[in-house]
Q: What sequence folds into this?
């Protein structure tokens, strides 16, 4: 009987970006729900924990002093200041997941994607989600009823700049149907997981079969 050789793989870093209101967060939530081999990245932040948030699950809560020391030491894949707080993706936690063959999902903007590309090009797969139209984007932002009219106008103005960066992404699709969008992301995941360079033990597997002939 031939000895079975198991093939493993290195995980990948899946980045999803879009203008606010394009539906990226909803798509990501569904993908995480349906796929056990991918998890959301956990960021470090200097802001205080909110009620119900758990250390290591929602965020890694650090002091500003520790955060700046981590930046200097190069311990973040990407980092940025958002309003009055700092955020960053710790390398160690992501590397651990990738080595275990698990994928990590990132919900970052084009600037965060550029940093990730600079620091982890071989592991990175990027998707940009476009809205069906500017009218639909405005409708979604307005119907969310989470923002004032001024904030909606600001997000619409920012969307034009964000969408100009689509060319920097590996995959692009228009989110005009949630189910189709979720399946598109899952199709990208399945294809990328089979890439030769991510398969661990492939050479040994092939050589073992050749030796048995």
A:
């Amino acid at each position: 009987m031939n000895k079975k050789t198991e093939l493993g793989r290195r995980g990948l870093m899946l980045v999803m970006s879009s203008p606010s209101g394009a539906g990226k967060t909803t798509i990501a939530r569904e993908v995480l729900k349906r796929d056990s081999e991918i998890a959301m990245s956990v960021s470090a932040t200097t802001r205080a924990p909110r009620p119900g948030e758990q250390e290591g699950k929602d965020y890694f809560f650090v002091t500003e002093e520790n955060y700046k020391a981590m930046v200097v030491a190069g311990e973040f894949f990407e980092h940025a200041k958002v309003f009055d707080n700092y955020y960053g993706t710790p390398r160690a936690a992501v590397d651990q997941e990738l080595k275990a063959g698990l994928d990590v999902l990132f919900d970052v903007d084009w600037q965060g994607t550029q940093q990730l590309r600079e620091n982890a090009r071989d592991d990175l797969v990027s998707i940009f989600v476009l809205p069906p139209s500017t009218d639909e984007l405005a409708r979604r932002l307005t119907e969310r009823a989470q923002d004032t009219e001024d904030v909606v106008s600001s997000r619409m103005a920012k969307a034009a700049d964000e969408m100009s960066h689509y060319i920097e992404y590996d995959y692009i699709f228009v989110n005009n149907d949630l189910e189709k969008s979720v399946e598109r992301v899952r199709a990208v995941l399945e294809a990328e997981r089979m890439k030769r360079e991510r398969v661990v033990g492939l050479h040994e597997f092939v050589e073992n079969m050749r030796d048995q002939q």
Observations:
- The chain has a mean pLDDT of 89.
- The chain has eight helices and eleven strands.
